[in-house]
Design goal:
This protein has 420 residues and is α/β, with parallel strands linked by helices. The protein contains 14 helices and 26 strands. The strands form seven sheets. A four-stranded mixed beta sheet has the order 23-25-1-26. Strands 2-15-17-16 form a four-stranded mixed beta sheet. The longest helix has 13 residues. Bound molecules: uridine-diphosphate-N-acetylglucosamine. Uridine-diphosphate-N-acetylglucosamine binds next to helix 1, helix 5 and helix 6.
Length: 420
């Protein structure tokens, strides 16, 4: 079993580059299957989830190449594609579900194994299904698969999502752009990764109005064309490096970011006492004292991202003062808090609230990274803990962070990947 061996380090100093967003590239790869021919994605992160999505698309009949040197993925989509996503891949990565919309749009049918992925909650699919049913799909489950059929094709519809779910918005939008007629989709998610997907769909020939707002008006088109698209920067990876600078009282310049996608996160980090400067696609975060604790409430974008909640609990655990962190998206995300407590953090959970009383220093111990963000956050905590911390289940971190250890050591951290 592999683990990260983390020694107390810092202040972290230097430069780090952020790749394209995991939560965008996977959906862009799925969207590519809607157009026959060669789609090219640039600024692709070198992460495990990209390889899983590439394999899924290959099994649908596409030729997929990932050139790591140029951070480019090419997807050559044949005239006829398969419509089945198997359990062995879907269980490894929940985002496999994002081929659902493209497959019903392109083939009129999709069989998708019910997903697994991060252990961060029950993560229903009801909103995806309600939206697709409105567009004319029949859905049932059989032998662990979701069977989705649009025997008479897809037709535009007025749809109001119960909740601005990221995944449901993406699936419904991808189906609606190839449906017959107009769709009006209300209460959609507005995450920068959704904007990125809509922008790519428009380049492919889709007609979408209201991109970036909570209502999308879509006029269906008969066919889409392949395109070339540069993946939006990963605001969660950028936020992780910014939090690392604050926790270790360091000075990090993060390159390749889009600061306008991170306004609330940067505001919260300023509240901890950090100095933050942004110039074009560069963000400099420096910290000269122990951070002040800040309250956090996770909400859909433009609210505070749930994917940076564990990192902020880690930060609050070594801050001056107490804070309340409220998680509104994934009920099981606080599983990570029990691991942080093993490092000596003073954390108390009550329902979806976590009370954190800051301590000057944590205490190194073996801990388990229960999901991609939990694993990264425990490594950050290990940097401000005495002695040595071992973070296991590193495969979760590999799903979301390219060259995680190399980037950290480049900033002066004492972190190694070791066999346990
Ligand atoms: C995506 C991101 C994930 C991020 C999350 C919220 C990817 C690959 N993952 O996940 O990193 O944390 O957005 O920003 O992009 N829900 C339902 N029924 C549904 C759909 C969702 O009840 O049909 C619930 C979920 O259980 C969860 C909440 O809605 O409690 C948010 O989920 P959603 O926005 O769909 O997140 P994902 O797309 O799974």
């Amino acid at each position: 079993m592999e683990a990260f061996r983390v020694e107390r380090s810092g202040p972290l100093k230097g430069d780090v580059r952020v790749p394209g967003a995991k939560n965008s590239v996977l959906k862009l790869m799925a969207a590519a299957v809607m157009a026959e021919g060669l789609t090219t994605l640039t600024n692709v992160p070198q992460i495990l989830d990209v390889e899983i999505m590439a394999e899924l698309l290959r099994r649908l009949g596409c030729k997929v190449e990932h050139d790591i040197a140029t951070s480019t993925v090419t997807i050559d989509v044949p005239a006829k594609i398969g419509h089945k996503a198997d359990y062995d891949l879907v269980r490894k990565m929940r985002a496999s579900i994002s081929v659902l919309g493209p497959l019903v749009a392109r083939c009129g049918e999709a069989d998708i194994a019910l997903p697994g992925g991060d252990a961060i909650g029950s993560r229903g699919l009801d909103i995806h299904m309600q939206g697709l049913e409105k567009l004319g799909c029949h859905v049932h489950s059989e032998h662990g698969y979701l069977i989705v059929r649009a025997e008479n094709g897809l037709s535009g519809a007025n749809i109001a999502l119960d909740f601005p779910s990221v995944g449901a918005t993406e699936n419904v939008v991808m189906a609606a752009v190839l449906a017959k007629g107009n769709s009006n989709i209300d209460n959609v998610a507005r995450e920068p990764e959704i904007v990125d997907l809509c922008n790519m769909l428009v380049k492919m020939g889709a007609k979408i109005n209201g991109i970036g707002s909570s209502v999308l008006e879509i006029t269906g088109v008969k066919k889409l064309n392949p395109t070339t698209h540069n993946v939006v920067p990963d605001r969660i990876v950028a936020g992780t490096w910014a939090i690392a600078a604050v926790m270790t009282q360091g000075d990090i310049t993060i390159h390749g970011v889009k600061p306008s996608d991170m306004e609330l996160v940067l505001e919260k980090l300023r509240d901890t006492g950090a100095e933050i400067k942004s110039v074009e696609d560069r963000l400099n975060v420096s910290m000269h004292t122990r951070p002040k604790a800040v309250d956090i409430v996770t909400l859909p974008y433009p609210g505070f991202p749930t994917d940076l909640q564990p990192q902020m609990i880690a930060l609050n655990s070594i801050a001056t003062g107490s804070s309340m962190v409220t998680e509104n998206l994934f009920e099981a995300r606080f599983r990570f808090v029990n691991e942080l407590a093993r490092l000596g953090a003073d954390v108390k959970i009550n329902g979806h609230h976590c009370l954190v009383r800051g301590k000057e220093i944590l205490s190194g111990a073996p801990v388990e990274g229960t999901d991609v963000r939990a694993g990264a956050s425990l490594v950050l905590a290990g940097l401000v803990a005495d002695d040595v911390t071992y973070v296991t289940e590193v495969h979760h971190v590999d799903r979301g962070y390219s060259n995680f250890v190399e980037n950290l050591t480049g900033l002066g951290a004492n972190v190694k990947r070791v066999e346990m």
